[in-house]
Amino acid sequence: MADSKRDFYEVLGVGRDASEDEIRKAYRRLAKKYHPDLNPGDKAAEAKFKEVNEAYNVLSNKDSKARYDQFGHAGVDPSYGGYSSGGPVWGSGDPFGGWGDIGDIFDSFFGGGFGGFSNTRRSRSVNANAPRRGTDVEISLEVSFLEAAKGCKKKISYNVINVCGSCCGTGAQKGSKPKTCSTCGGSGQQVTTQRSAFGVMQTSRTCSVCRGTGKVVDKPCKDCYGTGSVRTVKELEVTIPAGIDEGQILNVSSHGNAGKNGGPSGDLHIAIKVSSHPIFTRKGYDIYCEMPITFAQAALGSELVVPTLDGKVSYSIPEGTQPGDTFRLRGKGIEHLRSGRRGDQYVKVILEVPRSLSSHQKEILKNFDKSLENGNYQKRKSFFEKLKDFFSD
Questions:
Q1: How far apart are CA 33 and CA 51, in angstroms?
Q2: Where are the alpha helices (DSSP H) in the chain?
Q3: How many beta carbons lie within 10 A of that of residue 286, not counting itself?
Q4: Smallest Cα–Cα separation from 144: which of 282, 307, 275, 279?
Q5: Which residues of 60-85 are buried (b: 16+ CB within 10 A; e: fewer)?
Q6: Distance (Å, whole) CA 273 – CA 248
Q7: Quick check: 271 and 140 in contact, CB under 8 A?
Q8: pLDDT of amino acid 200
Q9: CA 17 to CA 15: how far, in whole Å?
């Protein structure tokens, strides 16, 4: 379960203020310590190796690291309904490209041989038949203001690459099988050896015959044309968590493109777009709205019926409320993604001046205005006193 995971910074043994270089060095040290080739048959070391890889995959990418720092495991783990920008993922979760030649691994770390391995400089070998993780799929999804605020379930459809059902991913017609490439011997790489004053130099490039697959298909599958994969439309119901905002990414694990050679599928990244609301606007986890009132309500005070995300509530404004005054409704805003705590709602009072008055109404207003003393208009009185001082200088 995701709740049992250790903190990724704790896994790598670094502080939360660690630099990219410190994270990388810590990862390399631990990856070397727990690599399965150095600990054959040690299940505990293998588990540690996977844990270190997962932590590094998140913390080595600035986007996924930022989401982890903000949301914790919920920011990158789909079991929480997490948010992620994807992050770098190599091979089947092992940034060494599979548990291959340990000499190549330490060559890449230290620029030389390791233990009993040759000091000959060589290119890193690639296993063409090793499982490879599928690529990620990115789509956008628009939700309403209230759906983003309250959370919801949405049905989506998107294009995805799946394993061909006719050939089961081999790329060959039924009754036939791919053959090992005779040019590269199934490695997917063509190796060239050269001798120099510094020893034997080996370089490799992708095989031009099999294009790196290590296999040659004589009778291609008619459904996938020998590729082993087909593009289909996938339907899925996803949970939109309460409090998600414009531009955030919802990560759905293992719902991306299919992997190669039995490798895991990639992830689905859903970029959230939030439509505007006729009444509310949002800033962080707080929401704002404007409330029109009459002159009488402002002067005498009034009991207002205010709309909120939870329905209507009553709020009493005092006598002498001024245009532009803003009051706060605590806990009536957006729910925080991580803590569940809610923001506030701010309501700004807008004074609406009546139009198209009758002659009788105008006469009433004139008499009312004459009955008022300067003390009723503090701002007006202050303004004209300042204006008098200005012209007297």
A1: 13
A2: 8-12, 20-34, 43-59, 62-71, 102-110, 145-150, 295-300, 359-371, 378-392
A3: 16
A4: 275
A5: bbeebbebbeebbbbbbbbebbbbbb
A6: 8
A7: yes
A8: 74
A9: 5
Structure tokens at 316: 């009493």
pLDDT in single tens digits along all 393 residues of the chain: 444 678 899 999 998 889 998 999 999 899 888 887 788 888 888 889 889 888 998 898 888 888 888 777 767 765 544 444 333 333 333 444 344 444 444 444 444 444 433 344 444 445 667 888 999 999 999 999 999 999 999 999 999 999 999 898 888 888 888 899 988 888 888 888 777 666 777 788 888 888 888 888 888 998 898 888 999 999 999 999 999 999 999 999 999 999 988 889 999 999 999 999 999 999 999 999 999 999 999 999 999 999 999 999 999 999 999 999 999 999 999 999 888 899 999 999 999 999 999 999 999 999 988 888 766 777 766 776 777 766 765
Q: What's the distance, Cα to Cα, between the start and end of the chain in Å?
A: 78
| CA 170, 173, 176, 182 torsion-angle sign | negative
Tokens found for residue 9: 């910074």
Residue with token string 């080996």? 202
pLDDT at 37: 76
Measured on CA atoms in the order 362, 367, 370, 376, is the torsion positive or negative?
negative
Q: Which residues of 288-305 are buried (b: 16+ CB within 10 A; e: fewer)?
A: bbebebeeebbeeebebe
The three-state (H, E, C) secondary structure of 306-337, written as one string: EEECCEEEEEEECCCCCCCCEEEECCCCCECC
Residue 308 CB partners (closer than 8 Å, separation 6+)? 329, 332, 345
Q: Which residue has the tokens 């004074």?
A: 351
Q: Which of 328, 380, 376 is nearest to 349 (CA)?
A: 328
Copy the structure tokens of residue 206.
Answer: 């992708």
- In whole angstroms, what is the distance from residue 178 CA to residue 130 CA? 16
For tokens 């005092």, the residue is 318
Give yes or no for a contact between 43 and 37, defined as CB atoms under 8 angstroms apart.
Answer: no
SS3 of residue 27 by DSSP: helix
Number of residues that this document lists for the chain:
393
Calpha distance 106→38 (Å, rounded): 11
